[in-house]
Amino acid sequence: MDLGIAGKWALVCGASKGLGWGCAAALVGEGVNVVMVARGREALDAAAEGLRNEVAGGRGIEVIAVAADITTAEGRAAVFAIRKDFDIVVTNAGGPPSGDFRDWDRDAWIKAIDANMLTPIELIKAVVDGMAERGFGRIINITSSAVKAPIDILGLSNGARSGLTGFVAGLARNPQFASRGVTINNLLPGKFDTDRLASIYQVTADKTSQSIDVIRANAAKQVPAGRFGTPQEFGAICAFLCSQQAAYLTGQNILPDGGLYPGAY
Asked: What is the rounded CA–CA span in Å between residue 130 and residue 84?
């Protein structure tokens, strides 16, 4: 299927690895020019070079790497100094640490909210009017399945990402955007085989003295699909949400989790 987005420009955050990388790879595969941003320069440069060589394939697709912390004003300025207007924006920030809520002070909460709620809002604010003026825009926020099924040790993530979800629910339905070709949706990943998942299981391993391999195997068995998802699968869903075909889909929370969420709604 031709998604109709070749030649568009996308900003993908947290793009050096994991789910952000999966989204960047899928968009480059569709002929989209991508600005990749992440904090770690070495991993980011390697990821960008890989996409240029292995996915772009000499088709004239631009893949630009910007090593910056997108959660800071300086990081966002560095990105928008490269390019001001984007047709597609994928917001994504590393999840806050897991743990016991009794151990989180105000600074921990502010940091979580800043990265996982306020930063996406700042990025949306920077691009959404231009998208509406041009008559096309796709904003995808990578949040978490914990928005629908909160996880006790991920309280910082539960709170901050739920705040973003509420904000997006209102903004996406604003006619000044929805009627002018701009869609805003959230992707709520379940158990995907990423460094983030490994870090969560490492906490469990440290507490229980079980090996992380045993913990991973038991967790995979809980998923009806019988396995963890891959960044490539996640990226393919993201690319579809960015497509011309998804123009009538906005304000939604898409839950790719291999069937783990037990609810009917």
From this structure: 9
